[in-house]
Every structure is written in structure tokens, then in C-alpha cells.
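In response to a reviewer's request, we include the raw inputs and outputs for one of the modeled complexes. The three entities were modeled together in a single run.
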Amino acid sequence: MGEIKPATTTRVFEGGDQGFATTRLDAMLGWARKYSLFMYPFVTACCGMEFFSMTSPRYDVSRFGAEAPRFSPRQADLLWVVGTISQRQAPALKRIYEQMLDPKWVLAFGTCASCGGFYDNYTTLAGIDKIVPCDIYIPGCPPRPEAVFDGLLLLQDKIARGDRTPGVVKPREDPATAEGLVQLHTKIKAPA
Amino acid sequence: MEPIDQELEEGELELPSQPMSLNMGPSHPAMHGTVRIVMELSGETITKADVQIGYLHRGFEKMCERGNWTQVFPYVDRCNYASPMLNNVGFALAVEKLLGVTVPERCQYYRVVLGELARIADHLTSQGAMAMELGAFTPMLWFIKGREMIYDIMEEETGARLTHSFGRVGGMAKPPSDHFKPMVAQVLPRVLSILGEAEALLLQNRIFMDRLQGVGKISAADAIALGWTGPCLRATGVPYDVRKAHPYLVYDRLAFDIPVGQEGDNWDRFMVRIEEIRQSVRIIEQALEQMADQGPVNVDDPRIVLPPKDEVYSTIEGTIQHFKIVMEGIKVPAGEAYGYTEGCNGELGFYLVSDGSGTPYRVRIRPPCFAITAGLGGLVTGLMIPDVVPTFGSLNMIGGECDH
Amino acid sequence: MSRKLIEILKERFGAEVLETKSEHGDETAVVEARAWGKVAKFLREDPRCEMDMMVDLCAVDYPNREPRFEVVMHLHSIRLNHRLRLKARVGDSEGDHAELESVTSVWSGANWFERETFDMMGIVFTGHPDLRRILMYPEFVGHPLRKDYPADRIQPLVPFREGYEKLPPFDHFEGMSFGRQVFRSGKVD
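The model returned the following C-alpha cells for the whole complex.
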């Protein structure tokens, strides 16, 4: 996390014991960041098909504010690593990650990006966290767009709280047995 | 703009230029994520292009040697992930060729319909992506909307939207559901109407036409020498389609046309694919009509097909059959075969070598877009950088298939 | 039919065609490695064969045999609608001296297929304009599809991160309970 050096002109807001005013600023920054994530779609494989579905009208990702793709890492906040990363592709991924500016987050979309999937062989990188720190892991081969949104919402929650611990999207309860599934709420509840 | 330190004659003003090397990819929006083109440029014109693939090499052929024949299906799904059912069907047909079995007719119709639906989904995705890379975002969204309807059908039938792993040697994993025919019948006219709307947007658009017509031309002789098959070859004027030349499954009973282009440029490849969607719809309609509602879907051979689940726990033959097939794999007799079908990009072939055990000795996938991408370097030489985008898009390189 | 192709080949090349067979509807001819280029050219140019498309070129590794590799080429004629599988055996038991003539001058599509066979199996195609790795990266050592290359030996390009903790796996009370294999003692339902 960042430290505050009084003599410098840059200030890193990462939360902590800075006092009331900074905490509110933190909350505001967190709110602003989480609803305006510019994505860098590092799309390689089959998960890309579900990525397209996610950005398309039915499963619209723009309602979460996370639609704007920026194909320059300098302008992006969230690195979506979509699909299998091979050993050959790894330097490119590391470079893109290093070129992104802070604050940045990494989302491993799919099982191959999270842990290599069923490609435990000479050519696949067994999970992108071997080369870049990863914030959210979304398992699935490929994950349904709804699971991806679970991950995105989880990430937004973490951004709001300033939490940098990694999270995994866990499978949801079977909707057929969930109680009170269709019920209008005035406040949005966190995912179960 | 006269350089001060050079002696120039009157009337001669030449700006010195050296070739510039530009790297497109491997992480690039128009490179479909996985191709790197190292170009030497003179101005904006490409003088040399080196297409480097292999960024999605996942060791498909090596992984196949580590499991059973049935365990290949998930791997093969992820080869051409835009039309996974065609890969499943292609591999199943290749193994069945080696085994010497033919699946029942109901299964053949089922495979045809699911395969053609996958073909429509692939064409929608690829042409939508190409249009989007040119700036036409709306047709992409409409095409994905149509693709979602196809995914709904696939989810109902196979349980998964994208990577179904639904094919099995000797049949399919499950018989068609009761909703199959009505769902497909409902979706087809909607897909056609989406196609019509997008065509109305694109085909008269001056920019779209200028960027595709006359760009990325290849002659039929060059295409054949490169090993091109599928829509890219048909766009050059060669009417070669595996479904007509070497009919498999029930394609010889279905009436459909093969769209063939003339110039071999991007425009023709685009139009061929759009027209193929219409022909696929025609095939599906006929197949649904001719498909029986009752009847077995799997071959009646206990050495190949898993028994029904209730027999596994109640009869001893069922238990043994299940055990042998799951633990040892399907025993394919020693030998080799090359089974080929019409995949989305062309002739999708599987060269299988078996040593008689349940584990494949060698599974070689002949990816249609490997041969097609081999021609990209030549196609792109002499074009300008922006022309690379529609040219590459119209070739429809699927990384999982090209790099297997 | 393709059967005539085998006869034409045998008639033209005689002893250099080592074996022929026809099974599962495919015609196969095994030729001597040194006749590879000649046979390929003949098949392309002879009007009775007219194999204008090279469909596939790959290799199979038989480590117990000598020669070790079998290079397999599938050919197809669009007009005459016949196919042939052409094979040649190269390589010693270590996998060295596996050389074959390149057919890039006959079919330009062979360029990438031969690069891939070189990359995966280590077969050198003499006369190839640009024989380098295509699917693996240039720093890779070895030929992965050979039977003696272990499937999980990785040669990473980027050093892996140290000192981070992997997340623990799910606990039994987390996530979905349906579809999970829960041990039930006693009878099977």
C-alpha cells in the first residue's frame, strides 16, 4: 500500500488512519472508480466468446459502468485476462500489466486464466497469478456472463472498500431452491 | 522542406525514407488476441509482413495422448470455439470411421442440425467482429443477439452455452429434448430477420464497401496451392465444399446451394459467409422436417456406448460395460484414418492413429484456418495498415484452431 | 477412384514405393524418403493425378521403430476428387538425422505445415525457405510432440512471482451444494 510522504506532491490514497476527511474522500474515490472501470480486454481464447456475450445487449456490462474498452494500457484500469495464457504470451501480458498506471486491478476471466484449466502441459501458464498479481478469479470454462458479473460486482465491492485481497467467485445457490428469489428490494444487497 | 545539408538538384526533392518496422499484436483488438504481425512499412504501405502465430498453442495434440478417446471431446471443443459442435461432430465421425460404425439416422440428423446451428453462430460472430473492427458496432450487437438465441438452444440441448462436449463416439451424449424442434423452428426466422437488418445497414454503406471491395484479393490457383478450403476458397470461385464433394451424415439428402464468389477479395468472403448462413437455415429446416421423433440416438454397441444409467446399477452387464468404457476407454482397433468434415472455415480433418488401446496414439487436427492464415502474409503485402483489419477479419482465424 | 492412384504411383516409381494399403476408405502409399520430392512433384503435375491441394502434413513418432518418424502428407485433387495419403519414414532412434525434402516449391501451403512439423517433431525439411519454429517460441528447447518429451515440462519465458499465497479451496459449506458429490454412507439411491 502507499505511504504518505509529506514533502512530495503526490499523494496515494489507499485508506488507513488518515482521519475522517481522507476516509470520506476514499469512499468517494472508491465509488467513482468502481463505477467507471475502463477495461483492457486481453482476450485470447474461448472465454472471448462469453466476453462478447457479456458486452452485448442481453447481458449488458455497460449497466455496471465497466464497458468502455481502452486498447491502450495507459488508459485502462482493469485488465481483463480472458482465456488461456500460453508461455509465449506471458511476456506480453506482463508488459501490458506493467504499462498500466496505478490504481489498477486484474481480473482472471475463466479457469485457464485463473489456474491453467485442464491444460497442464508444456505450453500453458498455469494461472496468470504466476506473473501478475490478480484481484478477482472467475472460474468457469467458460463462465456464464452472470458469473462474470458476480466477479465484477465483487471487484466493485472491493474497490469501494479499498480491499486488495484477492477474491474468487464461488458458485451460487441453485436458483430453483433459493427462497424469495423474485422480490423487489429498494437497496441492492451484496451477493450471497 | 528542403534539407539543408544535402546537395539536391533543381526539381529533385526526395524525402529520404527508410523502412519502418511495426509490430501489430499479440495483444491487439483486431488481431483476435493471438496473432502477431511484424510488418516492414514504407510509409503506410506494407512491404513485408511476417505473421507469427502460436500465442494460443495449448498442446491439443499432446493432451489427447494422455486420456481416452472420449476425453478428447472437451479439448476438441475448444479448438474452434466459435462453432464447437462442428468440431465435436468432426472428431466423432473420424473415430467412427476408424471403428467402422455408422450412427443411427436420427443421430445423423441431430448432428447435422446442431452442426449447422454452430456454423451460423460462428459466421455471425466472425462477420460481426469484422464489421465492429471497421467501426460498425451495431451489426455486431445484433449478430450477438442472434447468437444468444442459438446459445439458448444449445444450452437446452447440451447443457452448456459454448463448450458443450456433447458429441460421443457412436452417438451423442443425450437424445434431443422435447423442446428441440419447436425452439429451433422459432429461432430460425428471427436469425434471418437479424441478418436482413444488418445487411440493410452494411451492404449499401460506402465506407464498408470501399474497405472490403478489391482489398485482399487472391486468385483461385494461389488459394488452392496454399491449401485454403471453405468460404475463403469459395470466395475465389472454386465450388469446393466437403458436404457436396464427399457427403457425410445425411447431407446428400438435403438440398442446399454453395455460395461461390468471383474476385476472392474481402467483400466476397463476407458475402459468401452471409449467404452460407441462409443456406444453413435451409438445411436445418429440411433436416428438422426429415428427422424422426423417436428412435435411438446411439449406436447399439456395448463396446462403444455407455449403457443407460439405470442399467449401470441394476444389471451386471451394464456395470461391466460402464466400467470398461470409463476406465479403459473405447478400444479402437489399431490403424489410422483421416476423417474430414466441412468445418466453419473449411475442411476440418482429423488424422487419427490408434494402437488398439483406449488411449489415442496420435490425434492430428488439420485446422482449416492454419492454411488460411499462412496466406495472410502474402495477402497483406502491398496493402496499407488499415487494410489489414478487414483482411484479417474476413479470413476468420480462430486462435484455438490455428494454434491447436 | 484413388485405387488407380496407387497403381499409377507404383507404375511410375516402382521399387521406391515401399508399401501401399487401402483401409477405412483411405489410400496410403509409403515411399522412400529420398524420393519424397520427386513423388510430390509427379503427383501434382501428372494429369491423371492432378493433386493440386496439399491438405495436411504432419508426423507421427514411433519411438520403437527404426526409422522413428513417419511423415504423413494428405493430398487432394479438387477436379478429380480423389485423395491420397503419402508417407515417408525418417529419423534414427534418437530423433536425429530426420531430414526430408521440402515440398514448398510444389505447394506453397506446405511452408507453414513443414514449419509446424519441424517445431513439434524436429524433422528438418531441406530446401525450406524459412524453417523456424511456428507454434512454440524460439527460445524453446526440444520438440514437444515427441513421445519422450514429458507433457508437463515447462520452459517459462517470464520468471514466476514468489511470495504470494494461493487462495484456499472452497470449504464444504461454501458455494453450491447441488450437484456436488456428497458422501452418503449406506445404500445407494
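As requested, we also summarize the result in words. The beta strands of chain C are 17-23, 26-31, 53-61, 69-76, 83-90, 99-101, 124-126. Residues 182-189 of chain C have pLDDT under 50 and may be disordered.
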